[in-house]
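Morning run. Coffee first, then this:
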Amino acid sequence: MIHTLDIETYPNTDMLDRLPEPKVAYGNTKDPEKRAVKLAEARAEQVDKMALNPLFGRVACVGVNDTCHMVSKINDDESEAALLKEIQEKYLTVGQEHTIVTWNGMGFDFPFTYKRMAILKCFIHGTHRLSWWMKRYNTRPHCDLMQVWCNWYGYEKLDTVAGALLGDKKVEFDVSEIAELMKTPEGREKVSAYNLYDCTLTSGVYDMLDGVIF
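And here it is:
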């Protein structure tokens, strides 16, 4: 059975005080006020990138095919752990005949998800280990379409490839707004729609390449 998978993440504000001191390129600047501005800019950039680091970010939702599995409460260990356990039980368990299709899943989705499982201590016995999904040059059990398309070298955006092959592009969406959007039903619907549209694009690219490229 083929499943397209995509995750959305957001900053874990509980970890703000644990961020390391940002590296700042002061150059020859000696003025204290200008140095303070540069430090503030570096800190803001660091905060913006929290969602991409499993140490400082959380999983907001996991899209699988046409279903968005979403946390029930944001910035809450229990809610995130429950979501990750649900995904393990349904899709990542030993013995289940699943092929997971992602776009850059080896570079982001799977490592982020599994590291969050480790951090939250919610790894379920019987779930495939991360290494199971990270088999290079093998499209089973995990087909990372971006790696296949790029011949396992470099990076390409999903909207670029989907736009060229399918005539579709990703919807306009600012991922930095996910944490705020998750606070309201309307916002959660927007996050879900964005998440599932990525799954739709991934599925479309997979269908076009299947039987020809792999």
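The mean pLDDT is 93. Good start to the day.
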